[in-house]
Amino acid sequence: MNRSGHHATSVLTMSVPITLGITHSLPWSVIIASVIGCCWGVTAPDDVEIRYTTDSETERNEDGSETQVSKTLLAHRGVSHDVLIWLCLLAGSYWWLFISPFALTTWYQPLLKGALFGVTYGAIIHLLADLPNGKGIPLFPFGPRVCLHLWKASENQALMCFLLFIATTALSVKIGMGYFELSMDWLITMKHQILLHAEHFSQFLINSADQINLLFHTYIPDLPR
Fold first, then answer.
1. CA-based torsion, 3, 145, 124, 91: positive or negative
2. pLDDT exceeds cutoff 90 at 36
């Protein structure tokens, strides 16, 4: 998938970090930071390869013109596309944002947490988008490469964007439904607790009225019952 295709996937798949942020009651500033991180993360595996050109190396185009040869400091789809590395970074950023204590020691720390999660999530989306074409991506450092050999890198980008959109939307709905079920369970529990306390309070009022009535008839026996 080319760069524009990867940018399209960031828009189509950002429902997951948004849903996670809402269900975890994160501030909207942090959710927005995760979305911005996702927009860069979908090209991060390519960007960290550090592309450059040299004046000494050129190639001739079909029309006879010459252009500079573009190279990368790191091999394309090498360690920058390592599945295990990005999964570990995603797990670490998820723990830091959603599980670790959300201490507001500085104003930018929560934003940094959100942005880092968005970047690592976007990188995983990038790897999924690269998976169908013929040039594989490494599962772990110096490990085997995996690919589906379905089409070339620049082919069927709209189809891949659609598939990623369907998959991430389904995941977002699943996350949201789980949160809704938990919320409903909490509401049902609270309802039972309120009814139980109301019953105890009403019984307390009845007992208090009986005690007061008994005291009146003890000290003022002529009162009608």
1. negative
2. yes
Q: How many helices (H) and strands (E) does the chain have?
A: 7, 4
55-65 pLDDT per residue, tens: 666 666 666 66
- Report the candidate in 212, 180, 202 with the shortest Cα–Cα distance to residue 23: 180
Contact indicator for 135, 149 with CB cutoff of 8 Å? no
In single-letter form, the type of residue at position 117 comes to F
The predicted-structure confidence for 131-186, as pLDDT tens digits, reads as follows 888 778 888 887 888 888 787 777 888 889 999 999 999 888 888 876 665 556 65
Q: 39 and 10 in contact (C-beta within 8 Å)?
A: yes
> Is 40 in contact with 122 (CB distance < 8 Å)?
yes
Say which DSSP state 79 is in.
G
* pTM for the whole structure: 0.72
CB 97 within 8 A of CB 117: yes
Please, how many CA atoms are within 13 Å of residue 66, restricted to the half-sphere of its CB?
Answer: 7
Q: Degrees (nearest 5) of the Cα angle 79, 85, 88?
A: 175
Rounded Cα distance, 115 and 73, in Å: 25
Q: Which candidate, 121, 154, 122, 120, places its Cα nearest to that of 135?
A: 154
